[in-house]
Amino acid sequence: MTQATQSRSAARVAALVEGFDRSPAYAGLADSLVLLIGDGRIASDVRLPSERELTEALGVSRTTVTRAYQQLRDSGYAVARQGAGTFTRVPGGRARTRDRALTPDQLVGDHPDGIDLGCAAPAAPAGLAAAYAEAVAELPAYLGGHGYFPTGLPHLQAEVARGFEARGLPTEPDQVIITPGALSGAAIVAQALARRGDRVLVESPVYPNATLALRNAGGRLVGAPVDPEGWDLAAIGAQLRQVRPALAYLVPDFQNPTGHLMTDAQREEYAGHLRAAGTVAVVDESLQALALDGQEMPRPFAVHSPDAITIGSASKALWGGLRLGWVRAPRGLAEELTRARLSLDLGSPVLEQLVLARLLAGGPVLPDQLVRLREQRAALLEALTEQLPEWRWVRPGGGLAVWCTLPRGSAVALADAAERVGVGLTPGPLFAAEGGLDRFVRIPWTRPAEELRTAVARLAEAWQALPDTPVRPRPGRVLVA
């Protein structure tokens, strides 16, 4: 059966909307259906039961169902097809939930003054061009060889290892593999360790491109919810014991997209749950260097979980165009990961490795970059407080973005409306491992401060113009904010 002809029975829909607000009943029923469609529990292009069938299943008047379906159609969450019935839809189309951050011309449409808030990557810091110029002068020494370095330039491996040592994690250079970014690192790990059908625990919300590599390797993703306030480690431990996944992908440092920072005590507890389940952690540290409040950072997760594999990246701390990252493997695993890497590529560009080695010799991030990101974060959060006081968010201590909870309505609908006023916005469902999150949006502070203020003003305009269709929680539904 194709997606266009899928349907939901009246009994199933009645069970999903059980306990809807009945004052007035049609509005409560419509709001419950909007929540189900936005959360993905009723998918797009699914045929809803007929008005007569749902009337009987719910024990309400035919008028209640008729008016509820009409409200769904008016708000863009359903469409009537002549002779076929009423079908669900998502405002703006299913393409809205795809990651179009790297195609801002599509993300902001034809707006002459579009602002892209879909891509959480900073502009290059001062000093990067000089590092490239110095690296070009150094390059001729490598031109007489073949240029392939499957594990990386030795002195860059040493710089990355030194960074781990400085943070309390003893690391030898031969435990480091240089990759073309963190996503490539995730793909290498998946290629080496994920077998088709293996369960892989991933956080939800989660950066979707990283988990795509695990899914492409045949992993069966299992979502572990991360609340707006942080990790529920007791629940994660129970889930690990029940599912016993082969791998667990987690982002303990300024988690993308929530911005949470896992404490040392939490890391120790999480590591204990992983050991008990026999699960190997794949730890993404791409944002680890971006501590914006001057706080002392926790030790690397691998200190607490020695068999953990750590992935890092230069793209977030330095510049997205510097397409380099690394994998830090536990003793005895680096050779297996290198063999897996050779089935994907033969090494990373030499010039970029020379650049990164020079930069890392001075530290994991340039100080001017942190100053700029602090200013941009302050501008964004102040604008959100002033322009959108109903929205809720937890102030991140670092990273590149804030995760906002909408008090009502749909993030997908908001993203569609924002595009019309020239703002590219990424809605929550993109970050959902198993569906849902349609009441959240991620907003990065990676654009100049004035652009961020303008973008938030436009978002406020789009927000105020959205239909006032509050999401009404059903009894038994666990809210995350």
Automatic annotation (TrEMBL):
Keyword field contains Aminoacyl-tRNA synthetase: no
Alphabetical list of PANTHER family matching this protein: HTH-TYPE TRANSCRIPTIONAL REGULATORY PROTEIN GABR
One Pfam family this sequence matches: Aminotran_1_2
Protein name: Unannotated protein
Domain HTH gntR-type: 23-91
GO MF, one annotated term: DNA-binding transcription factor activity
InterPro entries: Aminotransferase_I/II_large (IPR004839), HTH_trans_reg/aminotransferase (IPR051446), PyrdxlP-dep_Trfase (IPR015424), PyrdxlP-dep_Trfase_major (IPR015421), Tscrpt_reg_HTH_GntR (IPR000524), WH-like_DNA-bd_sf (IPR036388), WH_DNA-bd_sf (IPR036390)
Coiled-coil stretches noted in the UniProt entry, renumbered to this chain: none
Keywords: DNA-binding, Pyridoxal phosphate, Transcription, Transcription regulation
Family to which this protein belongs: In the C-terminal section; belongs to the class-I pyridoxal-phosphate-dependent aminotransferase family.
